[in-house]
Amino acid sequence: MCGVGDVARYVLLPGDPGRVERIASFLDEPRKVAQHRGFVTYTGKVDDIDVSVCSTGIGCPSAAIAVEELSRVGGETFIRVGTTGAIQPDIEVGEIVVPTAAVRANGASRAFLPVEYPAVADFHVVFCLIEASKKVNRKVHLGVVLSSDAFYGDKEAMLRLGRAKALSVEMECSVLFILAELKGLRAGAVLAVDGNLAKGAIKGEFEPGEKTGELDERVQGAIDDEIRMSLEAVKLLEAFTPSSRAYSRSEVQPSQPPRPKPLQ
Fold this sequence. Notes:
By secondary structure, this protein is α/β, with parallel strands linked by helices. The protein has one domain (10-247): 3-Layer(aba) Sandwich (Rossmann fold). Helices cover 28% and strands 27% of the residues. It is built from 6 helices and 10 strands; from the N terminus they run βαβββαβββαβαβαβα. The chain has helices at residues 20-24, 60-72, 123-135, 155-163, 173-183, 217-240, and strands at 10-13, 28-36, 39-46, 49-54, 77-86, 96-105, 119-120, 140-148, 168-170, 186-196. Strands 5-9-8-6-10 form a 5-stranded mixed barrel, surrounded by 4 helices. Helix 2 packs parallel to helix 5 (173-183). The longest helix is centred in the C-terminal third of the chain and has 24 residues, at 217-240. The protein is globular and about 45 Å long. Residues 243-264 have low confidence and may be disordered.
């Protein structure tokens, strides 16, 4: 189990435990600090900034457990580094989505706040991910994603949200954004597209030996690039963020608009 000192302020969150070591290979001095019930955790450095990586498993319930426990031992900024299925016909397999918010089509996030409360990514994390995409020469799709409990859910319901301009479907962002909001933390996500429901390309449905879905070479390249993006975003966030305490939106003071001139 992780304790205080094992986990950095910046934490990258893949769903797949098997992807943790892959992300850790991009870090300097990576070391495994915990492995328990599918939650695998490594900590290392990027440009002398401490960064941790922890798997969240599948879906919002296990992601919520990871964020709750990681935040208790030092995690303050969380970036989900995952995959997603597009529900827009113009988004291609192997491209990258940066969510600004998530539709809360899941049960776990409702245990924390009513469904009417929006699940919104932290602006600073989103901004830094966009800036990081330029460094790795990657176009990104920016917008709302659908967080669903059902991997093999109602395709028509998902596409209906696509007609409302949701970009893609995944399984963890909404509870990550909600918990960050409640706890005064920061959270964002970067997602590699591994299928497209609008085109009938459903991940998980392929013949043995066929390289589709996450096994597609385009997706594998996107996963490497989203890892690079997340680490570049950490560098940018570190430059903007005080190192001694968690982020709080209450510290951001909006600029005052100019006073209108009196009518003559």
